[in-house]
Amino acid sequence: MAATPEFPSLDKLITSTLSGNELNEYNRIHYGRTNHHQLSNTKESSDLAEKHKFDIALYDFPANKEETRSPRIVRIGAIQHSITNATDNPIAEQRQGIFNKIRNLIEAAANENVNILCLQEAWSMPFAFCTREKYPWCEFAESALEGPSTLFLKELAAKFGMVIISPILERDEAHGDTIWNTAVVINETGKVIGKHRKNHIPRVGDFNESTYYFEGNTGHPVFETNFGKIAINICYGRHHPLNWLMFGINGAEIVFNPSATVSGLSEHLWPVEARNAAIANSYYTCAINRVGTEKFPNEFTSGDGKPAHKEFGHFYGSSYITAPDGVRTPGLSRVRDGLLISQIDLNMCRQIRDKWGFTMTQRLNLYAESLNDAVKHDYKQQIIRNN
Amino acid sequence: MAATPEFPSLDKLITSTLSGNELNEYNRIHYGRTNHHQLSNTKESSDLAEKHKFDIALYDFPANKEETRSPRIVRIGAIQHSITNATDNPIAEQRQGIFNKIRNLIEAAANENVNILCLQEAWSMPFAFCTREKYPWCEFAESALEGPSTLFLKELAAKFGMVIISPILERDEAHGDTIWNTAVVINETGKVIGKHRKNHIPRVGDFNESTYYFEGNTGHPVFETNFGKIAINICYGRHHPLNWLMFGINGAEIVFNPSATVSGLSEHLWPVEARNAAIANSYYTCAINRVGTEKFPNEFTSGDGKPAHKEFGHFYGSSYITAPDGVRTPGLSRVRDGLLISQIDLNMCRQIRDKWGFTMTQRLNLYAESLNDAVKHDYKQQIIRNN
């Protein structure tokens, strides 16, 4: 499958091609509703978006009214973006270039009253793990509490009264200088309330991440913010239903999936996995992928028999949000920076649990027992033979 | 969301609307490949299909050649169909009407050298569980070993040398006359090699199945046939990632998902869940849904505040097959009976496990432990508070 960086998105193609009842049927069957409930954004945000060449899209997810609980309506946002500088520029310049870009997107999010904002995986650096080179890339690793990315975002979080999730390359100096793929959660007063380390690490194609960091050791934390209970399933963890499940068990109402993934590898999986997680766990999910093609100074190989090269494949963006009832937004562009916002009612999580009953019918005891057996070295698979 | 029985399918709409590079991009991003690898069928099958008004579609899923294993190519088939008689006809006539129809579809499958064929959930009866009436519907329940559906299919299985999965309403006379939602596995010599009982039972809308039968007590068996290791995740079990997971842990290479589900409830979830399961577990999945609108003699209500009525919603068919790499076939029609066949190489399961590494990176020990904790009555969720 060829990478096609220039193709804007399936969502745009469908909207520009179909109309009337056909478009309605497409929307109903594919997205789960005929009306996307698109909201308009402020002029300030439109101006920012035009000036700084990013897209902005807002959608509403109304829930049913309840008699005994008030609606709990919050706005969540996701930012997808390309890097700004050549990857052989000084590290501080590469990072500052991204900071300068991101500031505009965050300002637009603030204009739209976003309460919780999530950036993409390793947002303040190129996704250099394709190279297997330790330097200079390990120098991007920074302290979760007081690294440059955290300091930059703490200020904006406090200024705009916004929770910001900041997925970075973390260096833990207090524990042997180890490096981790980590999401830092900064609350709306600018305080770091905690962090989560990526639980599942890929070893596939150009994703040589196990060369740099281990599987996370922070469990499945849910962060109880003033705008809802949130969790972060970083990138490759989206292939693991058990990872999604544990965040749900711990009470998550929104799970963000900051990612970096390329066409040719995962594009046909992208609309499936985070959406399935929302359905299976009756919570909101927000899948975020970077955009653009990143070029590195030295050649690297991809373990696919092809010649050495300097370019990663195309990061295809396409960030999207899914509600607990499986209804999803159109995706952002495959090629442009973008800010995706949804206005959601957290009450929908419990409403869908009550209606569909997936947690009630889950038989968790059965599976706790089955998995306990399955991990034993002498486990016997339940096989019925043909004789 | 209105039910729209007349709309043939999104797949057909897209094929008739897009062309050239746009169609290629749609196919690549949506289905996972630009070429569906459609195979042609025999003239005998085309004649049968035309005469008896059903669709037939064949797709190939080629895998890589390996040096140390020969390809293990088999053909799997799925049948979706509507009922034939009014639901107030005598039970024997209703069942015989379906038998007469199904015989033609099975003959077409035999013409195409299908090795393993799966029928839809409760294939030999109307899906009467919306009524909450015990009679006459419980009279459709039959012995897994020697009930009329099994006897009918044993003969065809032996005649055509085909494994047939027969999802029925089972009555277990040896255990208190209990009723179960069961899939019977008949091998290519016509012998019943075992059965599996539906693990997760819905209580949603018109799916009042918990009124009739309990959660299955047969675990997660994998049937080692001469054409591969197969399992059956019946209907509502597709919402439960743990159910899919255990079939994978027990070695399944193909998991069938015989279903009965209606538009308005699940149509936007349908393309997501069985496909996600194929991806997450590196095996083939085959999702099968009945077609048509079934009308019952007496009024029933749907627990949705709407007036009593006699018609179930529209069963939207749309059966489809997904490979371990997430590539899927177009779906069968939303409205017509159909036979969907795929030629698959079972070797792809291990190839994708080796390539993507989802089982290696699964951290099953961690989750066995976490679930064991989670089911305890005094379980404390891992919550990081905002203070």
UniProtKB/TrEMBL annotation, chains A, B:
Reaction(s) catalysed (UniProt annotation): 3-(carbamoylamino)-2-methylpropanoate + H2O + 2 H(+) = (R)-3-amino-2-methylpropanoate + NH4(+) + CO2; 3-(carbamoylamino)propanoate + H2O + 2 H(+) = beta-alanine + NH4(+) + CO2
Keywords associated with the record: Hydrolase
Keyword check for Manganese: no
EC number in record: 3.5.1.6
GO terms for MF: beta-ureidopropionase activity
UniProt pathway: Amino-acid biosynthesis; beta-alanine biosynthesis
Stated family: Belongs to the carbon-nitrogen hydrolase superfamily. BUP family.
Stated name of the protein: Beta-ureidopropionase
Origin species: Diatraea saccharalis (sugarcane borer)
Source organism phylogeny: Eukaryota, Metazoa, Ecdysozoa, Arthropoda, Hexapoda
